[in-house]
Design goal:
Number of strands: 14
Largest sheet: 8 strands, parallel
Shape: globular
Order of helices and strands: EEEHEHEHEHEHEHEHEEEEEHH
CATH architecture: Alpha-Beta Barrel
Radius of gyration: 18 Å
Helix content: 25-40%
CATH class: Alpha Beta
Number of domains: 1
């Protein structure tokens, strides 16, 4: 990839890649750098390595490892910071997803001072004390997303007013069975102040859900993410993902059969964008919006002015 000639996809949630788990207690500087280069080579020019809900000492350790890797291997143009998906999320079954509920914590503003490399954080809008946390995080320039929650419409609106800007992997991180009217799906769609992140890997969301979200939010307010986990880029098989035994199927589905939940994805941003393009829901310009421009705007990085298409996808996707 030549950063000076063409942009490539922007991914706000990369949990791991090529066998490397960014939330592993065994993560090393060299392993992270190797995985980061593989992500970049696969067509993602800017991304946020993501740490899921973990014990406090793991955040201390792995944040230091990632920062050192970024500096030592000159990854600053590609990695503007880290995304914390947790630990300030819901611990309720279904809403917690494949995260370990034992590591879920109440919102703690002190992490914002201790970890300056946090660029984005996902919290649950229905956690007590979260409104003040959101307000202080936003004041420090941290992107606040809402996810792994059972928040009401009113709670989402309060969080948005405090400074939250988007919904993490909308349509996922909730129980399989929810109330038919008062639920995070309808509430998230109705809250106009929140952009929506979608995992378009072909497994997390069916086409009709993607179509509905795009019609309600419009391409200007949708951000595609891969949510890739450590088995991404690896052959089908059984892997340890987030402490769970996960199966990577030949069709690319990565899931925990015993819990009945997905474990991130095994897709790249290029694959997610190709799948989205195949649904014929968006124009080429809109595909560029959802895969590149909207995420850059959220990170307050202006898109480069160039007519070259993002790399890592077919010419039919972006002309």
């Amino acid at each position: 990839m030549n950063e000076t000639n063409a942009p490539s996809w922007v991914d706000l949630q990369v949990n791991g890649y090529a066998g490397v788990d960014f939330s592993s207690p065994a993560l090393t500087v060299d392993a992270f750098a190797r995985a980061a280069r593989a992500v970049i080579d696969a067509g993602t020019g800017v991304f946020l390595p993501t740490l899921i809900t973990s014990p406090p000492d793991l955040y201390e350790r792995n944040m230091a490892v990632i920062e050192e890797a970024v500096k030592r291997h000159n990854l600053q143009p590609h990695i503007p910071g880290v995304h914390w998906e947790g630990p300030f999320i819901s611990s309720e079954p279904g809403a917690v997803g494949c995260h370990n509920p034992a590591h879920v914590l109440p919102p703690d503003v002190s992490v914002l001072d201790r970890f300056s490399f946090i660029r984005m954080i996902t919290v649950a809008a229905d956690r007590p004390g979260v409104t003040d946390f959101i307000r202080q995080a936003a004041a420090r320039g941290v992107v606040v997303a809402l996810g792994h929650q059972m928040a009401t419409y009113e709670q989402l609106c309060v969080a948005a007013e405090a400074g939250a800007t988007c919904l993490t992997h909308f349509g996922n991180g909730i129980p399989n069975m929810i109330p038919r009217h008062k639920n995070p799906l309808w509430s998230g769609l109705a809250c106009d102040a929140l952009s929506t992140m979608l995992i378009t890997d072909g497994h997390h969301l069916p086409p009709e859900v993607i179509k509905t979200v795009l019609r309600v939010k419009t391409a200007a307010n949708v951000i595609v993410t891969s949510d890739s986990s450590s088995p991404a880029g690896c052959p089908p098989g059984v892997y340890n993902v987030f402490g769970d035994q996960a199966v990577l199927e030949p069709d690319g589905k990565l899931h925990n059969p015993s819990k009945g939940c997905l474990c991130g994805s095994a897709a790249t941003m290029a694959a997610c964008m190709t799948h989205l393009s195949s649904l014929n829901l968006l124009t080429a310009a809109e595909l560029r919006q959802v895969g590149y421009e909207n995420a850059r705007r959220l990170l307050k990085q202006q898109p480069r002015t160039t007519s070259h298409p993002p790399q890592g996808t077919a010419n039919a996707v972006v002309q």
